[in-house]
Amino acid sequence: MSLISIKINEAGYDPGEAKIHNLNFSIHKGELIGLIGANGAGKSTTIKSILGHMTFLEGEILIQEGISTAYLPERPVFYDELTFQEHINFIAAVEELPVEVVNNRVTPLLEKFQLMNHVHELPGTYSKGMQQKAMIILALMIRPDLLIIDEPFMGLDPIATKILLEMIMEECKRGVGILMCTHVLDTAEKICDRFVLIDQGEQLSVGSLQDFREFCNLHEGSLFECYHHLIEGNRDE
């Protein structure tokens, strides 16, 4: 069953200035979708459209009733005057999570990312990597059914990247549907079930790596090789 079905004919900030066209894909329970494409291809606009942040959209985005959604942005966003603990408390209040539930979920994450001793500090004083870790904790603490992640590995050191990858796989096993926008194709190849390739504002291809290989006639090609084959073929037309 689809957690979300996306059919976007056009979307942008104003009618007549659409940034993306002709997108049509779904995310299923326990599925990890890699959203890939060059800078400016329309990936961020796609995410904003799914989240309802675009002022113009023709099409429909159908979300399964009753599911919870979390968004992990590329650039961390915090309230300047709140400590990280206060951010945690704020989200817990909005989601109506009991204190014991919050503690059971957040404490292991704080320990994994080594933020336990920094929880009462302002996130604005954190390093970029620490801020990214804090955002991951805030996204995962609500136990979402649908998780949208934009460039999750930016600013993370190798250890934190490994922890995040393990968490992503654990979330998929729990049944979470994940849309992950990333430029790290070698990592995406290893963990994603399917890919949505966007080029010049349009959906170019959707499918598994095997689907891409067959379409490109690259029977053992990497995602990197298939990606460039598809992009170059599209731009030569």
Question: Briefly, what is this?
Answer:
With 237 residues, the protein is α/β, with parallel strands linked by helices.
Structure description:
- With 237 residues, the protein is α/β, with parallel strands linked by helices.
- It folds into two domains: 2-68 and 146-236, Rossmann fold; 77-143, no CATH class.
- The chain contains eight helices and nine strands.
- The chain has helices spanning 43-50, 84-95, 99-112, 128-140, 158-173, 185-191, 209-216, 223-236, and strands spanning 2-12, 18-28, 32-36, 56-63, 69-72, 146-150, 177-181, 194-199, 202-207.
- The strands form two sheets. Strands 5-6-7-3-8-9 form a six-stranded mixed β-sheet, sandwiched between helices. The protein has a three-stranded antiparallel β-sheet with strand order 2-1-4, covered by helices on one side.
- Helix 3 runs antiparallel to helix 4 (128-140) and helix 7 (209-216) packs across helix 8.
- The protein is globular, with a radius of gyration of 18 Å.
- The relative contact order is 0.18.
- The model has no long low-confidence stretch (mean pLDDT 95).
Trace the largest sheet across and list its strands. 5-6-7-3-8-9
Count of separate structural domains? 2
Total strands: 9
**CATH hierarchy: architecture of the largest domain:** 3-Layer(aba) Sandwich
Largest sheet: 6 strands, mixed
Specify Rg, calculated over alpha carbons: 18 Å
- Residue share in helix: 25-40%
Beta content comes to 25-35%
Mean pLDDT: 95
Low-confidence stretches: none
Give the overall silhouette: globular
Instruction: Provide a count of the helices.
Output: 8
